[in-house]
TrEMBL record:
InterPro entries: ApnL_C, ApnL_M, ApnL_N. Residues 552-625 form the D-apionate lactonase C-terminal domain. Pfam families: Apionate_lact_C (PF25839), Apionate_lact_M (PF25838), Apionate_lact_N (PF25837). This is Uncharacterized protein. It comes from Ponticoccus alexandrii. Residues 286-542 form the D-apionate lactonase TIM barrel domain. Residues 6-226 form the D-apionate lactonase N-terminal domain. Transmembrane segments: none annotated.
Amino acid sequence: MSDPAIYGTEEPMAALRRVAVGPLSFLWGREALRQIRWHGVEVVRALAWPIRDESWGTWPVTVEDEQLDAGAGSAGRLSFTVAEGALRCLLEVRADAGGRLTARLTMDPGATPFRTNRAGFTVLHPIRGVAGADLTVTHSDGTQEQTGFPALISPDQPVKDIAGLRHSVGGGVAVDIAFGGEVFEMEDQRNWSDASYKTYCVPLVHPFVYTLEAPVTQSVTVTLSGAGDGGAAAGGGRVALARTGARAPQIGLALEPGWEAPESARDIAMKTGFGCLLVRLTGVPDPAYLAIAASMAARLRAEVDVEIVTGPIPEAGIAEAADALADAGLAPRRVLALPEGYLSSHQPSGPWPGGATPADLLPMLRRAFPMAEIGGGVMTNFTELNRCRPDMAQADYLTHGNTAIVHAGDDLSVLETLECLPQIFESAGALAAGKPYRLGLVSIGMRSNPYGADVAPNPAQLRRTMGRADPRHRGLFGAAWAVGVLAASAGSAVASLCLAAPAGPFGVAVAEQEYPQAGYDGRAAQVYPLFHVVAEAAALAGAPRLGVSGLPEGVVGYAADRDGLRMMLANLGADAACVTLPAEAEVALMDAGAFEAVTEDADWLASAPRERLRDVTLPPFAVAFARIAGGRGGDVTARR
């Protein structure tokens, strides 16, 4: 069972078994083969077989039989069903020490046709050593094309009509992948913060919902050659802290109806000291909701940014929102508006919603809010921003949000999103064209679903794709992941971001919910561990930022110089890690042993006993809050 203090759920973690056949190795799981390596170099991030429902959610698998021979000439066999037996699947895998791995998947709907948005093999290509690399594509008619993996994030499919791919990883390992049984195409999954390029079927020119009416068999064969360098070496040397000339970003809380109550939770959320309140308006503005927003912003003298979702007559909706905000005493510093149809995702080639476009709303906003900065961008993910790019000559700032569970909900995939965020921030920074870049809500859970009718229901609080209330948000996992988000913003143009809401599925304050909250129900808890990360980040906002480099693999750091050196270090790995600080520091450790104290006291970070340490041991998903009085940077030595 999972530890609720870490994961927010007791759902057992997905079992992954390491299989090694000579220099070829991979992790065997019931939903994918992960981290396929050749001589230690990751050549395929995942070979998966997801079965999607009609809203792009992934059906959980029910395993009927599993066999794995991890010896020489390794073979695996997995028989499973989805959708209460509506589709029966058989996976067969063979691998050998010569560098050949073959997977074969048969999907049988039986007598009743099976409706799906996508079913079959998906190959995820890593971005390290691959981004920008040359690529040879074999098309379904046998012709070949010379192209490359995109460097900046591509808004559409960079490669189509795929029967085979050939490329190298890091210049040292040759990778040849052949596909059978279906035509495949590639998309740049970095759009959704997945740290990969994805080759999938069926092509998007087919309807999103299609029907399997007879058994279908697909195959993927990976052939590897060449010798790698053993992969990137784990950190362990001296870790440098460098003055960057940048300032730590402003930290906000996102707000929409339902996330502001009850009053007791609201009062606790105020203790984070957030610098911006991001207020969303949909439909007719509720005076009570706006009064709460006005009170929260006034108490902290926080800036107010407003997001307006407009209906069929956008100018009337914008004017109505402006009047309601004025009546509530809210003077927005910044305003973004989008037609409701642009909360959904659309391919770059369309079709696009009829009626007003986001660009059409900009002059309406300037008339209604003459004193505010007017935003360009979206309220969903970078994907939608990249596909519907605003004219930044007409906008004052750029914005979008992010969720970590669009395509996969397992722990490893969520953590891998942190590897991709710097590339999202780089690509979005380029689109901002020198204007301020302000992120909306960056979260594990999905705030709204641009790809289907709604987010996936998650009443049992499992690790699943496209769920709004993700249990890890409430655990140490969510707090450590948030430190990873902050660390990923190093060197970027990110000026502001939201990591949470006051209460609700993205809250920092504990409040009763309609779903179970393992580790909290029946306890007098006040806050989730994420609260303390948000509060510390808010306290550092605007301070000179320090770059942190050289940390061991799996450890992330975020530091700034405010009344001395202040740093958050988070261990995102499954093993303990040790970090040696540049000088003796006062350290408060937020780990599973401190979970009750951390969650029962919103003032824990201020009152927690701090040890004077130079060597800090970080258990898995622990966060260390370190303060070095009068610290002026310097070196940090880190080792695992």
